[in-house]
């Protein structure tokens, strides 16, 4: 088991991707603190073996309290995964300031706060190993939308570009302390967020049926499918493990080859 003896903290743990990461980490032997919005699950020990923690990642008080709980229970943190995120289907002209600020509060400030308050625990995991080789791992969530832009997702694209830059900066600042920082950048993944995109009246609407939209999305991928939460969890699991000890400061695009091709050649 790749994560035996390690303690992990996963935000967005009740979402499609977050659930898959929590399940994979548990199978790999980790102690998992599964964090999501208060009220999205009963606090404390769960049937799957994880421990649910109610956290609004945009609240510094919530994040600080959650990390204090990790310190009390485990004394260290080996792996931090920032999977919490929201998507807004609007152009900037239609986006209110409140919506813009909320998008950045969850996707960017939330990542900042969890990393900030987790760093002492991540350092403790490295120091506790005492071998000079063990590293702690932070996995942030960017998106292929941080490189390329889907129509009608202006705020979302902006937040993911910010997460990409923050990931690189953290990798440079904290690599000498034994803390690795990477970002996973998914493309289209079969989650409730993707379903909301298909149902939406913005870039996912376009007057077509959901079935037509799904077929169109599959068709722009060289693999002819969109991804699954398990696909993402597999990559996150590797980045969290000691097998990825030399991987840091990278933006790992997982999109079925979609961004590798020139889309205009499909016309």
UniProtKB/TrEMBL annotation:
Residues 6-187 form the Ketoreductase domain. Pfam families: adh_short_C2 (PF13561). Keywords: Oxidoreductase. This is Short-chain dehydrogenase. It comes from Streptomyces nanshensis. Belongs to the short-chain dehydrogenases/reductases (SDR) family. Signal peptide: none annotated. One of its GO terms (molecular function) is oxidoreductase activity.
């Amino acid at each position: 088991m790749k994560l035996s003896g390690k303690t992990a903290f996963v935000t967005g743990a009740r979402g499609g991707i977050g659930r898959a990461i929590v399940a994979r980490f548990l199978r790999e032997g980790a102690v998992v603190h599964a964090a999501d919005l208060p009220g999205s699950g009963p606090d404390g020990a769960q049937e799957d073996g994880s421990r649910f923690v109610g956290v609004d990642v945009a609240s510094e008080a919530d994040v600080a309290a959650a990390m204090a709980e990790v310190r009390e229970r485990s004394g260290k943190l080996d792996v931090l995964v920032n999977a919490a995120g929201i998507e807004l289907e609007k152009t900037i002209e239609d986006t209110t300031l409140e919506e813009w600020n909320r998008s950045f509060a969850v996707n960017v400030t939330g990542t900042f706060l969890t990393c900030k308050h987790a760093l002492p625990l991540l350092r403790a995991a490295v120091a506790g190993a005492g071998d000079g080789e063990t590293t702690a791992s932070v996995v942030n969530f960017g998106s292929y939308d941080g490189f390329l832009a889907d129509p009608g997702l202006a705020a979302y694209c902006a937040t993911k570009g910010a997460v990409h830059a923050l990931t690189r900066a953290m990798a440079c600042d904290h690599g000498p302390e034994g803390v690795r920082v990477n970002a996973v950048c998914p493309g289209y993944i079969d989650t409730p967020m993707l379903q909301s995109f298909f149902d939406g009246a913005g870039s996912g609407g376009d007057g077509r049926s959901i079935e037509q939209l799904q077929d169109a999305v599959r068709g722009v991928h060289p693999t002819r499918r969109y991804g699954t939460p398990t696909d993402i969890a597999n990559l996150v699991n590797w980045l969290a493990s000691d097998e990825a000890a030399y991987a840091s400061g990278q933006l790992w695009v997982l999109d079925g080859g979609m961004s590798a091709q020139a889309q205009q050649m499909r016309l």
